[in-house]
Each structure stands twice: as structure tokens, then as C-alpha cells.
Write a sequence for this structure.
């Protein structure tokens, strides 16, 4: 028996430093403009190994970055997802909205449409970071 995947997100609001702590979780996606980065850990779920391996990934977001976290449930339907990282990255790169609720709803609709009825819960979390000022990095939301 093992525990389900776990994703923890720590954001230091004064420095903008973000730390992803993933234990056997699906990747987290970071969208900045038209570019999508995949943040993933190779750690297995708790209980698979006798010792816990935790992997922390550091990220420095800027204003307007979108953090997208998707549980494995949306991909557990009758038709298993092929290259789900590529599918989600491609969707996010092309989708123009920056509204977190709209993005989350559209991802759920697309997952259910492609995968059929899921065998697990369907959880999608989308966070749009605002008010983050990292010294030395330009504000991508500023109009020039």
C-alpha cells in the first residue's frame, strides 16, 4: 500500500522564491507568456520504497506567471493519456486566457473529453502570480 502523490508549493512573498516539493506527483507546469516549463520530480510515492525521497525544485516566478498543477486523476480514464506532459504543455502554450478559473475548467473538460470517465478524482489547480517583483527581472505585464 502506498500514499497518493503529494505536491507542496511554498512561495516566499518577499523574495518571489518558489519551491516545489513533489513526492510521486505529476509534473507542475509554469507558463510565462507563450513559454511553458515542466517542473517534475523523479521521487516515487510514499510507501513504494522503505526510505522517503523528497525532491525540491526552486523557481523564481515573475508577475503573470501561471502555475498549473494537475493530479493524476484526470489522466486515469478508460483511454490512458499518451505523452500527457506534451499534451498539457502544448495546450497551455496555445491557450491565450490568463484567467486561472477558465484555464482549470478548460483543462478538466479536455481531459474528460480525451480520457473518458476517470477512475479517480479530477483535480486541477491554476494559480496566477501577481505582485511578484524579482530584482533584475523585467515585469512581463508592463506595457512598453
Amino acid at each position: 500500500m502506498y500514499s497518493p502523490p503529494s505536491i507542496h508549493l511554498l512561495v516566499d512573498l518577499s523574495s518571489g522564491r518558489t519551491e516545489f516539493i513533489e513526492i510521486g506527483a505529476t509534473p507542475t507546469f509554469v507558463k510565462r507568456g507563450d513559454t511553458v516549463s515542466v517542473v517534475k520530480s523523479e521521487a516515487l510515492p510514499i510507501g513504494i520504497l522503505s526510505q522517503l525521497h523528497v525532491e525540491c525544485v526552486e523557481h523564481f516566478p515573475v508577475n503573470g506567471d501561471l502555475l498549473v498543477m494537475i493530479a493524476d486523476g484526470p489522466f486515469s480514464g478508460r483511454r490512458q493519456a499518451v505523452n500527457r506532459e506534451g499534451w498539457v504543455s502544448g495546450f497551455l502554450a496555445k491557450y491565450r486566457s490568463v484567467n486561472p478559473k477558465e484555464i482549470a475548467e478548460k483543462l478538466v473538460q479536455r481531459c474528460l473529453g480525451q480520457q473518458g470517465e476517470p477512475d479517480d478524482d479530477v483535480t486541477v489547480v491554476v494559480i496566477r502570480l501577481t505582485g511578484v517583483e524579482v530584482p533584475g527581472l523585467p515585469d512581463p505585464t508592463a506595457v512598453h
The chain has a mean pLDDT of 74. The beta strands are 6-11, 18-23, 28-32, 35-39, 55-59, 66-70, 124-128. DSSP finds two helices and seven strands in the chain.
